[in-house]
Amino acid sequence: MAVDATSDKHGNSVTRMLAALSGAALMLPGVAGAASAAAEPRANVQYGHYDEEGDRITTDVYHGDFVLPVSDYFEFTFSFDQDTYSGATPSYTVPSGISDAVTAASDIDPVSLGLRTLLLNPRFQATSREVLNDIAAGNLPPPQKPTDVTKEILRRLARQPQGDLGKPLQVMSPQPLETRNQPVLGGNFYLGPATLSLSGGYSLEPDFQATFGSGNLSLELNDKLTTLSAGYSQSNNKIIRKPVSLGGPHDHSSGGKENFEATSIYRTINLGLTQVLDKNTLFRLNGGYSWRRGFLSNPYKLVYIKDEITLDEFIQVSFIDGAKDWSSVTNLDVAGFDLFREVRPDRRNQWTVSAGLNHYFDFLDASLHFDYRYFWDNWDIKSHTFDLAWYQNLPFGVTFTPNFRYYSQSAAFFYAPFYLSPRADGFYSSDYRLSGFGKIRAGLTFSKRFAKGIELVAGFEYSIHKGSLKLGGGGEKDYADIDSYLLHAGLRMALADFSRNLDSGMGHHHRHHHAWPVPAGVMFAHMLPAANDFMVSYNYAYSNMSSGMQTSGRHHVSDQELIDKACDGGVCSFIPNRMVMHMHMLNFMYAPTSWLNLMVMPQFVHKKMDMVPLPNQPPETEGGDHRATGLGDTLLIALVKLFDVDGHHAHLGLGVSAPTGRVDITFNGLPDARDNPIQSFGMQLGSGTWDFKPSLTYTGGHERWYWGAQVNATVRLEDRNKKGYALGNEIQGHVWGGYKVMDWLAFSVRNSYRVTGDVRGNIDQDVPTFANGDPQLTPLENPRNWGGKFWDIGVGVSLKAPAGAYSGHHLSVEWLQPVIHNLNGYQLQRDGTLLVRWGYHF
Is 453 in the same domain as 554? Predict the structure, then answer.
């Protein structure tokens, strides 16, 4: 797989690489079997963390998929991928000898172009002093405007002797925290010897949208020893670069001040042959062709081109004319002095041929997988990929898999780290992923199969990217050498296997003893009844706040009151208009004894807040949406049984919340600094502190009636997190009751009351000073506008399969409606929360 030769709009191949590695990590030894619909539903969740050295791109990848058999000849498939990435990425490359003469045009964010570095450069400072001294001595006429000094400094820097023009220097730009979401729906039709697979979905990022579909037809021949396949896929893509605005959506710090939109289309055809050579050997042969048209450049990559425009032309258009109309001097998109946006051809044809061999060794109970792939395109990129993996089965259901990959590619015909003269064809790119290089990757993967239909997978991989590793030599210089690593873990579940093991190992009474329904929003309220029991559950919460700002007893507070009273240190610039939260939590519960349960509960959180400018802002001020996505805090809980008699049960919960969620997410997604204010407390992904989580739960029931009560608390164990504050302590109480209409259907009503304390401290950062002198963007960054007393009523329904293939599964849904709130300060009004929980006990 020519991963690096087919990078996405960012020039970043992390997503595809992680997907491929995650898939490979779950492969098992052996050869292909007959094509048929899944005999049982299957689910799979995966997590990967990718990190490049030198504070470059960091990516967290979350994947889930589900296969549901509908009939003997059809199965439904669904998958969802979410990637969250941030860090820094190369913006452009210049000759090291002239890097300090680079400056920015006014249509570009100058920070990303190194202007701050320029101002601190000794050559620039020395030249500045020289110019100012000449003005003071009368050797230069007094400047009529500040730009006159800048123009003279640039002229003198350009006339100074240049240093090394051969050694490239890479300039990095911060990559804002962004998220890609990709759901895919599909189905597989098994029609005798033929299998038809159809799928479609979309990929959505803040600046990139794609809709895609694919179809694949495979045919089994020769007593199912030979399989032929053919597939077609198409993707329609839209690239969007939005302007930067205070309070608006974030940008890559290299976007212009105007909207930019472009489109592209990808079409791919694949052909394949799979041949069973003997009972232990499988051979694969595949070929593919990809047709790409449209905007294939990276809208954030820049190139250095000497003499495309002269210094006098740059000064004339940028400082004197002031119109920023560069069409009279160049056809390229000007980003600065000798800096331009890259231009790649708008046509790309790609071909691939690959072959692979799997061989199983009986005496070792292991299999060897070897694959080779050759790639070439009309950009003159040619690549070779060698993959080798050894799948070793070990006792107790363990599989150990070392793997190795070597990748090498030649450079695109228009690639160069920088350009000392213009090209006749007008194509330019300094993206090192289009350079000549080699890459070595080695890793280890472990998997463990459990008898109850679960398989756990975990692995580590390390990669070295170097120009010197290219086959035949001639690769890019060491400035693009990158080391990276990948951590990945997965959980596969054959859901029907749970029921088979459950039915064979337990009686009906054992499975359901004291299993009274619990509302979906009550945590830590259920214990496993017997030693060695296990439960996997998934919890989802959706919360919406969109009815405006409020304070205790009053809704829809006026903008003027917010300006006057909601912010300390001045007036705010923006007001939050809406905030939504999606929380996903996995719960792994194990009972080492009948009286003790242990729980691990990782969370994934996505938050979005819309902001609109207050009336005190200039008319041209725009709002926008801001997002925070990633891992939340992780709960580690122990439940201890206090008593368990007919109709009554009580247990104590003791645990902690580990601060795995970020608390440094800024409004523009870039690393927090003076110019990048941190978002409000509620928009962060965690508390940032270690927290103590005690709880006490009672449940009971008689015939079809059931009831329960719980009190739980959150006690912050630290006075400050790394950003200088600690959220308030919380105590919460629940009382609920319900009625089982049928053995599998129950309804409940819950009364919930929560008290949240004040925030201690404040956000510790270099706060920017805006035109109005206000250190806050919205009222929600004020610690006085946090906490209070909240009374909610919940209405829920619970479903539980009492018997059959899905015995043991339970699903609960609850709507939590706010009733009375006594708020501290000014906060967004809560509209309600939807809570969903699915679980399986086996």
Answer: no
